[in-house]
Amino acid sequence: MALELYGRKDSVNVQKVMWLLAELGVDYTHIEKGGSFGGLQEEAFLEMAPFGLVPVLKDGDFTLSESNAILRYLAQTQPGGEAFYPTDPQTRAKIEMWMEFGSLSIYREFMQIFSQVVRTLPKDRKMSLLAMATRRFQVHTRLIGGALNDNPWIMGENLTLADIATGVYMFRFSTLPVIKRVDQGRVQSWGVRMQGRQAYMDTVGTDYRHMFAAPL
Ligand SMILES: N[C@@H](CCC(=O)N[C@@H](CS)C(=O)NCC(=O)O)C(=O)O
Q: Which CATH number fits domain 86-203: 1.20.1050.10, 1.10.10.10, 3.40.50.720, 2.60.40.1180?
């Protein structure tokens, strides 16, 4: 039975899962939910997704919420997944570490930035909050730059869940108007490398102008 992914395609957390599915070449059915599509409070959805948020993956009778949990599940169940999430415990633990960092540190600052720049009318933006979140975001990405060193990907030669769970935010961060970014060479090269992947551009590197509170 084909996998089903629930969630609007312009949500970064949904895009994170779409990116891995595209890398793996998995066939799946996509059901738009959330945002202007609504449906998150429907009984049938809440039965699958107790947190009432997207993304949600359905694999037969099995349903799963939380984008990072879904990434791990896919990497362990889909052909080719192991390359993104090797079984060696220490490698896996490091990947987990970056996934936590992506959700707990990078995503937190990203959401502040995104809500100020995209979701808020220009006249209502809190510029000092925006500047602080941008600075913190780049404090976090500098740590990714350190981990990359001279390697193409966080874990070395291969793209893994560590890159997917952190790099999903980079497309919008590097293309948002208004914010002032400082140059971070290794991080920018990593961003360019991600944008060189068809799977990334098809899922993450998509137009998000419709999401702005005021037309650009
Ligand atoms: N920690 C969760 C966060 C899920 C989340 O916040 N989802 C947002 C979209 S990014 C959502 O469902 N928002 C309500 C909506 O889209 O209507 C994850 O990683 O999956």
A: 1.20.1050.10
Closest of 83, 179, 175 to residue 122, by C-alpha: 179
Q: Which fold has domain 3-83?
A: Glutaredoxin (3.40.30)
pTM of the model: 0.98
Distance 7 CA to ligand 1 centre (A): 8
* Pocket around ligand 1 at a 6 A CB cut-off: 8, 11-13, 34-35, 40, 53-55, 66-67
- Span 147-173, average pLDDT: 98
**Cβ(107)–Cβ(169) under 8 Å?**
yes
**Of 43, 67, 57, whose CA–CA distance to 168 is shortest?**
67
